[in-house]
Amino acid sequence: MRRRERFQRWLFHLARDERVPIVLTQRRIFIVPTSGGLLFAVVLAVMLIGAINYNLSLGHALTFLLAGLGLVAMVHTFHNLFGMRLTPGRAEPAFAGDLARFPLALENPRRQPRRALEFSFKDQPVVTADLSPQGRATIAVPFVTHQRGRLDPGRVTLTTRYPLGLFRAWSYPYPPFSCVVYPKPLRTPLPGASPGAHADHRQGDSGQEDFAGLRPRQISDPTRHIAWKAVARRSDEQALLVKQFAGGAMDELWLDWWLTPGERGDEDRLSILAGWIMAADEQQACYGLRLPGQQIAPAQGDAHRASCLQALALYGEVEARDAR
Questions:
Q1: pLDDT tens column, 109-158
Q2: What is the pTM (predicted TM-score) of this model?
């Protein structure tokens, strides 16, 4: 088995491609006849036998003309992939059960177009693309996610049967793709907010009643608090300014692992926390997250939501790595 794996790795270049862009050289492209191509060859053989048997000059001419056409189609199928350049992009996080999309930039350095290119991961949906002469395009190769965590989708299968469908040429590029998959949210009622010990020192910073001035924007501040008029009046390129309010400190909402039903499994409890995070973000609440061995302080905004969801997605990964 190990010898077979080593042979496949050598033959199909299965190692991850660390250098980008990935250039499809002659060694990385493989080509075989399709079922239609095999049938085409059988028909040519029958035509040749008939022409020889009946001594038909036009039969010989037609047979060899079609054979030459098949050879030309084989060359064009191979060159439809040869020399193409692939540059992987950054994949956005996705929820379990949704489609993760992995961007791939395509570049055609030749003066001939490339047609009917098919991209897919193993047992995943196929996306097609065409490239104009010396053109560029960006596609998103889909992958159906099933569980949370860090996703490595594996090799991309790039296939073409252009122009006549008699041959199938393919390649196995292995871009350095990676994607974080969040737990699938389960919508349940939010736990109650707790105006606790931290409410006093947040007075004058997180209340929503009276305008108290401007301050530099932090990454966790929502964009709706940006003072766009004040930013437009500034001639320098300093940090954005946000409005701060005084009066009525905002209660802190803690989304705690121990508030989820203990009889549920770990994955269900993480999904419940993911649903709470989405609901709290929709309500523009100031919330924090507590997990066993990890805590994220209360805040707001898209960056804070992404940080909390990523903590859920990678929960248990460090412990598993340490155990190995």
A1: 999 999 999 999 999 999 999 999 999 999 999 999 999 999 999 999 99
A2: 0.76
Give CA torsion, residues 205, 289, 96, 119, to 10 deg.
60
Alpha-carbon gap, residue 97 to 99, rounded angstroms: 7
What are the respective helix, strand and coil percentages of the chain, to the nearest 5? 30, 25, 40
Q: Is the preceding peptide bond at 261 cis, omega within 30 degrees of 0?
A: no
C-alpha distances in angstroms, 193 versus 118, 216, 280, 281, 285? 51, 27, 10, 14, 9
Average pLDDT of the chain, as a whole number: 85
**Confidence category of residue 239, pLDDT binned at 50, 70, 90:** low
Six-digit token string for 175: 């871009």
